[in-house]
Amino acid sequence: MTSKIFSLILVFTTGLSFSQNAEPIYFDKNWKETSKAKASFYRINPSKKLDDLVLIEDFYLNKTPQFQGYSFQNDENSYVGDIVWYDGNGFDLSVYQFYNNSAASVLTYYYPDGKKLKTIPYKKGKKDGEHIVYHQDGTILIKGKYSKGKPVEGDFEEVRNWEDYRSNKSESEANEENELLTEATPVVEYSAGTKKKVITKIIKSKIFWINSKQLAQETWYDIEYDRMHRFKQVNYDVTGKILQTIGQADFEEYSGNISNGIAYEYYVQNQFAVAIKSKTAYKGREKSGEKIKYYPNGKIQEFTKYINGKIVDDEIVYDKNGTVMQKRTYKDGEPFEGNFNENFSGSLIINSNYVKGLKEGEAIVKTDEDSIVTKGIYKNNKPYKGTFIVKTGEDTHELIQVTDFKKNGLQKIFNCNIDNIIETYTCVNDIVDGETIFYSNGEITGKIEYKNGLPYNGKLVEGETATVYKQGAITDEIFYRNKYERTDENDILKSKSFTNGKLTKIVNSSFTIADKVQDSYEGIYKNEQPYSGYFSTEQREFNYVDYYENGIKKYQYSNNYLENLEKYQHPYYDIKSTYKEGKIIDGVEYIKLDRQFISKYWKNGVLQSYDVDLFAMHYFNRFHFELKNNSIEITEFKKKQKGRITREKIGDKYTSQLIIGDKVVMSSSSIDLDNEMPEQMGSIMYYESDQIIKAKVIDSKETDYEGRRESEMFYEIFASTVNSSKTTEENFNSIAQDFSTSKNIEAMFGKGDNADVLTGLRFNELKKPEMGILVVKSNSTSYNLKSFFDGKVLEEKKNIDIKNIREEVKKLNSVLEKKLNESFK
Q1: pTM higher than 0.85 for the full model?
Q2: Residue 335's closest CA among 388, 392, 289, 378?
Q3: Cβ–Cβ < 8 Å for 800, 818
Q4: Which residues is 726 bridged to in the sheet?
Q5: How do residues 609-642 score in pLDDT, each as one tens digit?
Q6: CB-based contacts of 332, cutoff 8 Å, min separation 6
Q7: Angle, alpha carbons 160-164-170 (nearest 5°)
């Protein structure tokens, strides 16, 4: 018996011919004109004309609508305004909006029986003005106002992205002239004593039940930051009974999806609800509760239950009469027992059987149009016999042919679209053997013959690289700018040549040298080592080129990498450095470690200055070091500060000083460990390195904590690396060496677990020990330790061997920390 819903469809899809003065135009299934007897579709003839447009109205042979939309008269494939395709039941299948750059400023659409459905005004290609939707009796159902394509006032059939317009090629120039839409943020109010937003201006989208003036769904929106935010929704049944009301807190803040409540989906024709298609319960953003799919006749098609986003229990599938067709059992949200349809890549659906969570038996892959793509048998969750589609990477899939668990025959690799094959290869018992072909946009980009799983003859294409083989040996390796241009020989970055499988030459077009501009640069290898010509590094952020003559490095070509970070794809090298005996003696030497980049500037083999660039998450800073007037000048670029490290002789000892501005803020001098109880100002720092303990006195003159903090890195560099027993030039080179070799910046500054710092001792104003550990040499291999707290001796340990000194210091520090914590209570 025909359902009430389909009876309604038949009622409003009959009576079309009364207004027709000519025989319809008939088309076959491929949309070729044909006779009525061979037709699958027909088109109203003559079509309605509007200025330079024609309204195309196509139908299935049973008078169910198939398409409605405007096109230019001179090109029916150049769509204008709203267009809609319908499925075989007459329900909306695909709806799009196109720019309207025609002579018609208002477009009118019609019900299948020819009555006026809606009018939409346009300005500068976009919807602009009062949009009206009519009931079949001619009364107004919906009225809303557009401005520059954006719904701004009243009611609408649908609220969509107002910038989501499609273009025809013939309209490209006109669309480029359309200025981008900008809207001011709406005025909103906040109720007293609360942060809850009060919406002061709303628009609504309304879905009516078909052939009725009864609402099915009404949704409220507010406009904010050029986005439509749902803040209320009410759903009704066909009698007007309220099914649910959900409010602002029930929608996700950014996506606008329902987070608490029921999401209704309808079978619609011309955006009128014919029946409920599905309803899905959500709680806390996740599916939780029932999800029910319906047939158009109202019978349940599929029933699924969710808890916290995962399917639980049995999923049941019914036929149109309500008889159970299938039961599918899930475990932990994954298929466990039964027959399942799972969405796969693109429009593919895989139907397979599961037994205790493993695929078993026949599996069929179909398109969403129900065409069979593959069919195969699984055993123990593995492809056993037939054809299969399997996921092999993040965006790659394979269509494989399998016999007795092994790949045999032609195999195909594709990304997301099965029609876009990127590679085919042949297997014999799971081993690649035969011709492999590579494709890009349907065109062959390479062919290679495999023997017993190894490349033998031809071109192997992988990503941006192509490798050429002859008789099983590599002859050439070609690197392209990107994988999409690897068919164009003009887009080759570099190529490598091999003889008897050994690298002999490289031709590089990926850079330009300022004092020798040419299209490409050649480098010759001998015994697979650079011998003569130009050889580029393979780094990403920073590259340079070394030039060789007769196996000896002569020059290096580079640039200011900070100024050229955005030009790393084709760097321009305008800095030339000279090598001697494998070391740069004139120009810039570069050293890159995990968290620092050092640029050393040499002249005649003497280090003149260096830059230390430090990197961390969301952090960059550069320190410039330079020898000036017998002092080390340091410039910090981030804070635009300068400091100096000097050295002078006081009595029979040398003292190093850190000067910021004109003020000495810290001093340091080396001491020996033979004195039982030195009298000092400041603190003694003890260092252990290579089984030797050294010490230096550090005296901070800066009493202002904020001032100390502002120049913290200067203090750290001075305290951790400067040795007053060394000359200024020796310290300058020593600091450079420390930065150039240390992979742990924290350890360099005495903060890391691998630091050389052993312990320390702080003195008071009377030059007496106050807090810490005193280290005194007892003989050539052992030391005495004495810990102080609050000016008093806490503990002593004598004749500690150098091998055990770290462990004993650790024990003493543990006692000190405990005392310190107790004093704070």
Answers
A1: no
A2: 378
A3: no
A4: none
A5: 999 998 877 788 899 999 998 999 999 988 888 9
A6: 310
A7: 145
